[in-house]
Amino acid sequence: MKSIYLIGFMGSGKTTVAKLLAQKLELAVQDTDQMVENYYQLPIKKVFANYGEEVFRKYEHHMLTKTNQNNTIIATGGGIIELSANIEWLSNKEVIYLKTSWAEIVNRLKFDRNRPIWNDQSRDKENLLTRRDSKYKQASKHVVYTDDKDTNEIAEEIITLIKEVG
User: Is this prediction's pTM over 0.90?
Assistant: First the structure.
């Protein structure tokens, strides 16, 4: 089975859903953010603070290209689609966009202190979500709406989707 890539804005549930999907389908799981931290031996917060977003995006691209191509559920970072090279790289992969409304994201992340972009008060995150939406759609084969669904419902919807496609 080809690997499944989960994309979407921060707080859309990519990591949580990836872990559950991997468990349900008995597949491996990879998380590009975790891969960046492990490979470069730095928390993402420090990569942003010390080197900036542009360097992080290069690290992220490098790790994306190192993901398993088969039998793996891959959670990507929310900004994976910021580089056109990533959209191009994902173009022949099974990519699912976990689409989440702004109100739901705010609710999920209201106490989160570990996301550099979320915690940057100078950034308009709602505008960022709006701007990224078309890129997520461009990079994905399927869209799964996550509002008002628990993780299990989202995972089951994805399983149904991949069975229909596969």
Answer: yes
